[in-house]
Structure formats: structure tokens, C-alpha cells
Design goal:
Layout lengths: L7 E7 L29 E6 L2 E5 L5 H7 L7 E3 L5 H4 L6 H7 L3 E5 L1 H10 L1 H4 L11 E5 L5 E3 L2 E10 L2 E8 L2 E3 L8 H4 L7 E5 L12 H11 L3 E5 L7 H5 L6 E3 L5 E3 L7
Parallel strand pairs: 3-4, 4-5, 5-6, 10-11, 11-12, 12-13
Antiparallel strand pairs: 1-2, 1-14, 2-3, 7-8, 8-9, 9-10
Length: 266
């Protein structure tokens, strides 16, 4: 499916946790590291499909991410869930409405959309407004595939503690973040991929996130060609951690761009 695109890639806009790295007020070795890979904005990726751009999550850092990486259009937005670090940049899509002179489709589960509508009540209020606000077309997904910007995307359900989060499979690639458990039926959708993103917060157990060790076991089970860990806390020093990982597993970092879709890109 991705072979239809002459140019296709996944651009990591942010690979950090809800507080980002460096964390405010912290002077640990990761937060003070000179390695740019240890500077982590809140978690998000951009799918680049020829001239189409599909954003996964609008983090509080979205404006900074858009400027840093030269994002000049948005064709769709997908939401994994409604936690603050994944939605609070939604207002910053307004310039894309101005530039494109059009509404932007957004896709979310029913629960996520309900939470976004509560958080951004002014965006979805039908009353006239003297101020500009994001112009969005709402779409609810469940478990069936959806067509987004010319590509079929399969929502993949996972658990985020006691809550539900969705990852997305597109072609032989998938992006999952903020998961503590991937149910067996969802694992079946992720076997033998080319590229697989997984949550890997830290080494110590966490009630709502996967650890490095848990995600490594998932990689062994699902056998992707390439795996990238994201939603990384300030417990993990990039260079030191990567030196310990298997060859097919890397830590994601802000600005990493992964070609996808064609044999010669692998």
C-alpha cells in the first residue's frame, strides 16, 4: 500500500514524556546532556506521503515542532487518546486553516473526541465568534480501517493503565505510544512489520506505560524488521541505552526521519 507513494517517511516530532526532557527544574545527567538526542519534546509523529502530511497527536509543543521541522500543510490529524500531552496543541492548527483555506479532518475514538470537545469547547461551539478558531471536520473511528489522505489506516487498540489508547497501522508500519499492555487480538495486527514504534518509558515499572524490558519482549514476539522506542523519560541516556539494544531496535529521537514503503528504502 505504501508503495504507491514515491516519497514516504515517518518524521519523529517528539519522543519524550508528558513533561518533556529536560524536565523543568531537573539537573540530572540526561536533562543536562549535551547530546541533542536527549532533548525530547512531547510524543508525536508526522507521516509524509508525497505531498500529504498526516499528524498523529497535537502536543503542547506542536507550534515549536511545526516551526522546527518546517511543516507547511496538514491533511489530517489522528489522535491516540485525550491526555494533555497529546491534545493541548490543537489550537495551533489554525495557521494551516489560513494557509490551506480549508477545514482539516480529525480522527479519534468516541471517548477521545468527547474529551477533546470538552477541553476545546470554544472550537466546537456553534455560536458565532469574533476570534478565529481551528476549523476541523470530526470523524469517529472504532476498530475498522479508515481512509486518511489516500492511505488506509488500521486503528490498533491498546491499554494505557485502565484506559484505552489507539495506535495506528499503515501498510507494514505501525505507531503505538502510551501503552501498558497490547491485547492479543491487537498483537495479531502487528506481527512481522517493517517498522514498529512502541512505548518504552524507562526501566522501572510504571502503571500506565511499558518499560524498556517489556517492549523488548514485545519486539521478540512480534518480530518487526525495525523497532523504535518512544515516550522516553529522563531516566534513559540515549547513547548509553542504544549501545545495549539489539541491532534492530533503536531509541527514537526528535528529528529522526524513517523512510518507509519501498524495498530500496529499507
Amino acid at each position: 500500500m505504501l508503495e504507491q507513494f514515491e516519497h514516504a517517511s515517518i518524521l519523529v516530532l517528539g519522543s519524550g514524556t508528558s513533561v518533556g526532557v529536560p524536565m523543568i527544574g531537573c539537573r540530572c545527567r540526561v536533562c543536562t546532556s549535551p547530546d541533542p538526542r536527549d532533548k525530547r519534546l512531547r510524543p508525536s509523529v508526522l507521516l509524509k506521503l508525497n505531498d500529504k502530511r498526516v499528524l498523529i497527536d497535537t502536543t503542547p509543543d506542536f507550534r515549536c515542532q511545526a516551526l522546527r521541522f518546517g511543516i507547511e500543510r496538514l491533511d489530517a490529524i489522528l489522535f491516540t487518546h485525550a491526555h494533555a500531552d497529546h491534545i493541548l496543541g490543537l489550537d495551533d492548527v489554525r495557521p494551516f486553516n489560513f494557509l490551506q483555506r480549508s477545514e482539516i479532518p480529525m480522527y479519534a475514538s468516541a471517548d477521545t473526541l468527547e474529551a477533546i470537545e470538552r477541553t476545546f469547547e470554544y472550537v466546537f461551539d456553534a455560536k458565532p465568534s469574533e476570534s478565529s478558531r481551528p476549523r476541523l471536520v470530526r470523524h469517529i473511528f472504532e476498530t475498522d480501517p479508515i481512509c486518511v489522505a489516500g492511505i488506509v489506516i488500521q486503528p490498533v487498540r491498546a491499554l494505557h493503565g485502565s484506559g484505552t489508547v489507539y495506535g495506528f497501522r499503515f501498510g507494514d508500519c505501525a505507531y503505538l505510544t502510551d501503552h501498558s499492555e497490547i491485547p492479543e487480538e491487537s498483537q495479531q495486527q502487528l506481527i512481522g512489520l517493517d517498522v514498529l514504534f512502541l512505548d518504552a518509558l524507562r526501566h522501572n515499572p510504571h502503571p500506565t506505560h511499558s518499560t524498556v524490558e517489556e517492549s523488548l519482549r514485545m519486539v521478540e514476539l512480534l518480530e518487526p524488521k525495525r523497532a523504535y522506542f518512544t515516550h522516553i523519560s529522563h531516566d534513559l541516556l540515549h547513547a548509553q541505552m542504544e549501545a545495549r539494544l539489539p541491532k534492530n531496535v533503536r531509541l527514537a529521537y526528535d528529528g529522526l526521519e524513517i523512510p518507509i514503503g519501498r524495498e530500496d528504502r529499507v
